[in-house]
Each structure stands twice: as C-alpha cells, then as structure tokens.
Structure to design on (588 residues):
C-alpha cells in the first residue's frame, strides 16, 4: 500500500509550505477525513477524528480498504469512487461500520487531489445518524397529521391570511356540500356564511388573521342552499412566531340544537364513542412500554392512564403466553405488519382472562426502535362457548358414528358371508391414511366411509350375494350397482364427510377402468383411492361364497400388480409398508 507523502514533501518554498499547511489542516480537522486510493480503495491517510470515530488504531485503519468500512457491495463503492474521480468531486450517503460493529449513517463529500506521485480521493465524512432518526420521526408525524386532517370526522379548512381556502378535508364536503376543488381559492365567508350572519363571520375571520383563537357556534350555509348548525374553533398558524395562515374546525351540531337536553345526551354519546369504545386500545414501544391507553384498558388493569404510561404491557401477560407474544412482536415487519394473537392475561383484580389482540407494527425507525398499536377484546366467554361447542361436536360425532355402525350392521345382516369385511377394511384404510400423514378429520372420514362402503349391497338380492358359484354377467352387473346404490342411500344423510361420494367411487380405478362412472386420476377422491386398496387386500385374504380365502400375500401381490395403473401408487406403498415393515395384521 502506498501512503500519501505528507511526510516526504520534496517541493520547495511556498509549495512546501502549502503542503505542510494542508497536512496540518487534515490531521487536526474536527471533521472526519480520509485519503483513499481510487484505484485500489486503500485508505492512505486518516486524521485523528476518523481514527476516533471508527475505533481502529491508526495503523490498523490505514491497513484497511474503504470496502471494509462501507456496507455497500464493493462494485457499487467502486462505481461511486469512479464517479467522484471523473467529476473530481461528489456527495454521497453511505452506511459505515465501526470496529465495534455499530453501523452509522454518514454523508461523504469527496474531491480529487493530485500530487506529483498519484491521484487520491479526499473524503470529508459527517455522521448523520441522529439527523436520519429525526427525519424519520418527522415523516411519521407528518403522515399522522396528514391522515388526521384527511380522515377527521370534523370539517377542517386551511386558509390563507386573506381568508382564501387553501385546502379542505373530506368531512368538509360532507357537512357543507362543496368539494375541495370547489373551495380552493374562494373566500371562506363567501362560501359558508349566511347573509344574516355574514358580518359576524367576517369579524371572526379578522380576529383569527390578527392572531386570536376563537370559538364559534351558529348556522352556516350549505352548497344546496340549506343550512347546517355548527360549533367549532378557528386559530392562527404560527411558523417561528410568524403568522402564516389559519385553521377552522367545524362540528355539525344540527341534530343537537333542538334542546339543551338532547345536546348533552349527544355530547355524551360522542364522548363514549371516542373514549369508551368497547375494546382495549394501546400503543407501546419495542420494550412493551405503554405510550397510550384507553379507558377500557385502564379498567382491565385497575389503574389510571397516568399510572399505566411507561409500564410494560408484558406485566399483564401470563407466563405461559409471554413468550408467544414476544415472538409475534419480533416477527412483525413492513411486509407482515399485523398479527392477531390469543393470550391469557392477568387483570388488575388478579383474575386470569382470555384476550384476543390485533397488533400492528406502526413504525420502524432507521436508527432502531419500533412502535406498535394494538386493539384487544376479552374473549373469555367466547372461549367457554367454544368449549361447549367442542363438547357438542364430540357428541354429534358420536351420534354419527352410531348411525354408521347401524348402517354397517344392516349390510352385514344382508350379507353374512362378508360379515366383518367392512370393519376390516375400515381398520386397514384408517391405518393407511395415518401412514400417509393425513389429518385426523380426513382419517375419521376414511374410517366412517369404509364402515359402510358396501351399504349398497342392501339393494342386491341375497341369493346373488351368497351364490357359491361363479356369477353370470347379469348377476355381476347387479353386484356392480352396489356402489351407486350406496352413494344414493348416503346422500340422504347429512354427515360431516362426503361419504356418498367416497362410497360411490371406491370401485373406480386410476386408469379409468373402474365403475360405475369410469373416473380416472384426480377425479377420484383420495379417500376412495385408499378404500379401494384396503378393499382388495381384505377381499382376497378373506373367504367368499364363490371361493376360499386366497391369503394376505395374494392380496398384497395384487395391489402391487395394480400399483400406478388401477391403484394410486402412494396408497399402495403405504399399505405395503404397514404389512411388511410395521407388522400390521388383518386379525383384529
């Protein structure tokens, strides 16, 4: 690394004196200053202020490249240096990393210095971290004020010193009937002052222009010729002590004018809407410290607003919910700014309650720190209702199961030779579904459908079902009708699962060669594909009127033969795994 030759100046006379003067100005300057080789990025010189700022010893800092300090990728830094070298000066904003690891916002002014030996960049660096934090806070406040002006439920006019309207919010159009474009540039009193009150309105305007704050109440004119009774205030806008305009705020009091009693009732209603919303509202920082609480939250905590401000919200969260809340807060980001979470909390009276809170990440400041807004509701009673509903659901499922059992028994009574077949199929199908990782509700549906998958055989003559010999083509066609018949029977019963479709499809095949509708592939429900495999295995392993039992291995070989053609390969694999690796057996 070549150092910039402050200490080896060979020039004579005034040039040498200027060089020494520059050297003194460089090293003793309170501003951070670096000399950088624009070709290599080497830091050639650093003044004392830079050494102190970055936290490296001078020798260590001079052994680094600017790429070690700047958080941008090297190619982008080189592009900035090239830009400064070509233009011979440049102003940039970067993020620089100190030895401690802290990252600071900096503004860099670079210029080119030419010595008789090399060209270098002289960079003057200013720490603007606090400035950026202030700018971010101002942006948040400006956005808040802009939204407050636009969405406030009160009409607001921003006027110049001569009484001309500069801007008006949405509520103004609702109250007075004029759009903002219609109001801009017009004298406020010409637009909304009634003839009989024009002089009073003009006097009010003059008072505000003179720097006074006024309160007014009375009728004002609407665009449609009607009138509206308003109550409001107008006040001057001061900028560094200088009057630059005024604001007027109007509240529509028309419904309240009829009687003083109604006025008091309406004011109380409005106050309740604003202050007594039936939900807990708060704002807090990253440490959970409250910066705002509403009355509902104060009631829950049994404390006043003054007592709650600055208190961490975590104090009211139960130990078993605290980690959940903190993890959700950490996960919030600009791309995922809101979360709704249910927590157990401890009230001011010591009681444990269930709350549902919707939390929004309101602001993330560049220098660090986040602000959250939250709205919460007590759902303790809802939780109790949910528990009751869950118990009722359990009872309903028990009733469904009993109904399925009755149907299964009816099938077995009609076809005693296949007695127990449906139960064996249900047991195997359930195990296959579990092996495939399906949820409990899906597994339950498979099991229930399996228990009645042959319910349609009730419609088949008993002599055909129990015929010991080979079935004729016509008899086989009658047997095949049991799928559609079963679907029709179950379609008349309201169940939590589509049992009629599952039962109707359990003889369909993946290649479309099944019955009754010749469905193929994804047209067949997953539950029906599982039952199809279990049905084949048990049917071949069990005794039938027209043949003796062929054995379990014959059934497994048959589904392996049909794997990927007639049967779903994933279902077959799961079934084979149960028998050959996990010791499953058809013996109950």
């Amino acid at each position: 690394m070549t150092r910039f030759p402050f200490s080896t100046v060979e020039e004579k006379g005034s040039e040498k004196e200027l060089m020494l003067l520059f050297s003194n100005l460089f090293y003793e300057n309170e501003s951070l200053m670096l000399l950088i080789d624009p070709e290599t990025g080497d830091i050639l010189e650093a003044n004392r202020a830079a050494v102190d700022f970055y936290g490296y010893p001078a020798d260590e800092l001079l052994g680094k490249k600017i790429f070690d300090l700047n958080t941008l990728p090297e190619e982008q830094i080189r592009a900035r240096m090239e830009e400064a070298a070509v233009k011979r000066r440049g102003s940039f904003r970067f993020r620089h990393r100190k030895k401690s690891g802290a990252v600071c916002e900096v503004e860099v002014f670079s210029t080119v210095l030419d010595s008789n030996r090399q060209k270098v960049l002289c960079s003057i660096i200013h720490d603007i971290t606090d400035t950026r934090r202030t700018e971010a806070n101002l942006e948040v406040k400006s956005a808040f004020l802009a939204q407050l002006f636009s969405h406030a439920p009160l009409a607001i006019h921003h006027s110049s010193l001569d009484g001309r309207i500069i801007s008006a919010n949405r509520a103004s159009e609702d109250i007075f009937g004029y759009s903002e474009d219609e109001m801009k540039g017009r004298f406020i009193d010409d637009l909304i002052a009634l003839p009989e009150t024009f002089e009073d309105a003009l006097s009010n305007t003059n008072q505000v222009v003179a720097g006074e704050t006024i309160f007014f109440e009375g009728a004002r004119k609407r665009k449609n010729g009607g009138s509206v009774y308003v109550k409001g205030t107008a006040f001057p806008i001061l900028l560094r002590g200088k009057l630059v305009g005024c604001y007027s705020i109007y509240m529509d009091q028309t419904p309240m004018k009829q009687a003083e009693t109604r006025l008091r009732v309406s004011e109380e209603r409005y106050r309740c809407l604003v202050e007594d919303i039936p939900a807990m509202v708060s704002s807090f920082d990253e440490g959970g410290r409250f910066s705002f609480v509403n009355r509902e939250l104060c009631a829950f905590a049994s404390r006043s607003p003054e007592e709650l401000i600055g208190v961490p919200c975590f104090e009211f969260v139960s130990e078993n919910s605290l980690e959940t809340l903190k993890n959700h807060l950490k996960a919030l980001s600009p791309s995922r700014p809101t979360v709704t979470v249910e927590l157990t909390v401890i009230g001011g009276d010591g009681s444990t309650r269930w709350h549902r809170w919707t939390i929004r990440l309101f602001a993330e400041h560049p220098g660090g720190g986040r602000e959250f807004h939250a709205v919460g509701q007590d759902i303790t009673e809802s939780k109790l209702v949910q528990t009751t509903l869950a118990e009722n659901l359990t009872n309903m499922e028990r009733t469904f199961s009993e109904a399925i059992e009755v149907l299964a028994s009816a099938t077995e009574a009609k076809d005693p030779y296949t007695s127990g077949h449906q139960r064996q199929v249900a047991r195997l199908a359930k195990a296959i579904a579990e092996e495939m990782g399906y949820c409990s509700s899906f597994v339950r549906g498979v099991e229930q459908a399996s228990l009645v998958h042959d319910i349609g055989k009730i419609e088949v003559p008993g002599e055909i079902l129990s015929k010991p010999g080979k079935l004729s083509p016509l008899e086989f066609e009658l047997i095949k009708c049991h799928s559609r018949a079963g679907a029709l029977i179950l379609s008349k019963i309201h169940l939590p699962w589509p049992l009629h479709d599952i039962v109707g499809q359990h003889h369909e095949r993946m290649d479309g060669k099944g019955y009754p509708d010749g469905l193929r592939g994804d047209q067949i429900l997953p539950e029906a594909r599982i039952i199809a495999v279990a049905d084949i295995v048990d049917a071949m392993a069990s005794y039938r009127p027209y043949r003796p039992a062929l054995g379990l291995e014959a059934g497994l070989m048959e589904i392996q033969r049909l794997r990927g053609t007639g049967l779903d390969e994933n279902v077959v694999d799961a079934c084979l795994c149960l028998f050959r690796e996990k010791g499953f057996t058809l013996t109950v």
In short: The first strand starts at residue 32 and ends at 36. The longest helix spans residues 380-414. The chain has 23 helices and 15 strands.
